[in-house]
Amino acid sequence: MTNDNATGVAELMEDDPFRRSYRELTDKEKLAIDAIKAKASELLHLIREAYDDADGQMQPEGTDDAYPGLESVVMAFRRELASAEERLEEAVMWAVKGLTA
């Protein structure tokens, strides 16, 4: 059994891989995109909240010189959370791209 919509999408991507023109999304597709973005926003909030909580614990006030090497640990921590945010953005982008093909 073939899905005519899937066949049409494959043909469109073959003819226009850069999507110079867009197709009209169904209501179901629009709802799915909104749900994906809403869940991603929730996760982003949790990541940023964890970042703020942990950042405050890692750098207590008045301890600049008390822990040698702490700055490199804090920098790695910040880099990892920034990477998590970027990957979340990328995941949403790919999910939306897949739904809108």
Structure description:
The chain is mainly alpha-helical and 101 residues long. The chain has one domain (25-100). The protein has helices spanning 4-15, 27-58, 70-100. α2 runs antiparallel to α3. The longest helix is centred in the middle third of the chain and has 32 residues, at 27-58. The two termini are 21 Å apart.
Briefly summarize what is shown.
This protein is mainly alpha-helical. The chain has helices spanning 4-15, 27-58, 70-100. The longest helix has 32 residues, at 27-58.
Number of helices: 3
Question: Which geometry do the CA atoms define?
Answer: elongated
- Seen as an oligomer or otherwise, the chain set is single chain
The count of DSSP E runs of length 2 or more, i.e. the number of strands, is 0
Major β-sheet annotation: none
Q: How confident is the prediction overall: mean pLDDT?
A: 80
Computed CA radius of gyration, to the nearest angstrom? 21 Å
**SSE succession:** HHH
Structural class: mainly alpha
Q: What are the defining features of this structure?
A:
0% strand, elongated, 74% helix, 3 helices, mainly alpha, 101 residues
